[in-house]
């Protein structure tokens, strides 16, 4: 069974631009969560989706948004990029609806660099 | 609010035991434990739920003291493969507001 896939793996953008990251969960998984990982702030929860609905949202500005499609694939978008948005963005999928209280499987991440 | 992990780092010899602690100032519903090796994604170890039993993953076990809002991860007879950064993640009493701890760096030497 294929794991969680994320595209692209690496991305370089400049300040002010916007970016869209994609995540395909494990086949059969309907929950997807997104995390940001930086050396300074560590791992931070962005949002969680189940059946195309956002169930939970972390403490990030409105520039960070996401969505989930009917096939469970998810995208996250960051608009008006800032230098501080440089990070590893991780996606995780879960079989059940209550992702935050069940096992999550992480993808390899997308390394975003903002210049 | 981010949970506190202790110690920040620990160095062991192969075969030694270690304990990593995770504590929160708020009531918790669940505590997750993950291990992340350098350059890799976090890997799920186990989850402890309020009212649940102590969990075990190979020679790694964990406990959850709901009254103290604390969880401990016990690594028994550590192996070289145990090296990495261990994160706890907590969800509040409503099963929401998921937050990761800062991590504990574990190094197992031969």
Descriptive report:
- The complex is a heterodimer of chains A (115) and B (110).
- Helix content of chain A is 0%, strand content 52%.
- Chain A has no helices and 11 strands.
- Chain A has strands at 5-7, 10-13, 19-24, 31-38, 42-50, 53-57, 64-68, 74-78, 87-94, 105-106, 110-114.
- In chain A, strands 2, 4, 5, 6, 9, 10 and 11 form a 7-stranded mixed beta sheet that branches.
- In chain A, strand 4 and strand 5 form a beta hairpin.
- Chain A is globular, with a radius of gyration of 13 Å.
- The termini of chain A are far apart.
- Chain B has no helices and 11 strands.
- Chain B has 110 residues and is mainly β.
- Chain B has strands at residues 4-6, 9-13, 18-23, 28-36, 43-49, 55-57, 60-65, 70-75, 84-92, 99-100, 104-109.
- In chain B, the strands form 2 sheets. In chain B, strands 2, 4, 5, 9, 10 and 11 form a 6-stranded mixed beta sheet that branches.
- The A-B interface holds A 35, 42-45, 48, 56, 58, 90, 98, 100-109 and B 2, 29-30, 32, 40-44, 47, 49, 87, 89, 91, 95-103.
Secondary-structure class of chain A = mainly beta
Distance between the termini of chain B: 37 Å
Content-based structural category of chain B: mainly beta
**Beta strand % of chain A:** over 45%
Order of helices and strands of chain A: EEEEEEEEEEE
- Enumerate how many helices of chain B there are, as a single number: 0
Indicate the radius of gyration of chain A in whole angstroms. 13 Å
Gross morphology of chain B: globular
Helix content of chain B: under 10%
Q: How many separate helices of chain A?
A: 0
CA-CA gap between termini of chain A:
37 Å
Helix content of chain A: under 10%
Mean pLDDT of chain A: 93
How many strands, which pairing sense, and closed or not: the largest β-sheet of chain B?
6 strands, mixed
Radius of gyration of chain B: 13 Å
Number of strands of chain A: 11
Unreliable residue runs of chain B = none
Oligomeric grouping of the chains: heterodimer
DSSP E strands of chain B, number: 11
Order of helices and strands of chain B: EEEEEEEEEEE
């Amino acid at each position: 069974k294929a794991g969680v896939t994320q595209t692209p793996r690496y991305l370089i953008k400049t300040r002010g631009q916007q970016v869209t990251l994609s995540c395909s969960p494990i086949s059969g998984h309907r929950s997807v969560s997104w995390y940001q990982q930086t050396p300074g702030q560590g791992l931070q929860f962005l949002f969680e989706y189940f059946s195309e609905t956002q169930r939970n949202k972390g403490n990030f500005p409105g520039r960070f948004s996401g969505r989930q499609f009917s096939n469970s694939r998810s995208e996250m978008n960051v608009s008006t990029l800032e230098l501080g948005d440089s990070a590893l963005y991780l996606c995780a999928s879960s079989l059940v609806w209550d992702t935050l209280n069940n096992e999550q499987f992480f993808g390899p991440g997308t390394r975003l660099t903002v210049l | 609010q981010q949970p506190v992990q202790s110690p920040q780092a620990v160095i062991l010899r192969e075969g030694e035991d270690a304990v990593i602690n995770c504590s929160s100032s708020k009531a918790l519903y669940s505590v997750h434990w993950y291990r992340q090796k350098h350059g890799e994604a976090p890997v799920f170890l186990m989850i402890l739920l309020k009212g649940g039993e102590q969990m075990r993953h190979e020679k790694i076990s964990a406990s959850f003291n709901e009254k103290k809002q604390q969880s401990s991860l016990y690594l028994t007879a550590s192996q070289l493969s145990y090296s990495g950064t261990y994160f706890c993640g907590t969800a509040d009493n409503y099963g929401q507001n998921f937050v990761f701890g800062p991590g504990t760096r574990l190094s197992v030497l031969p």
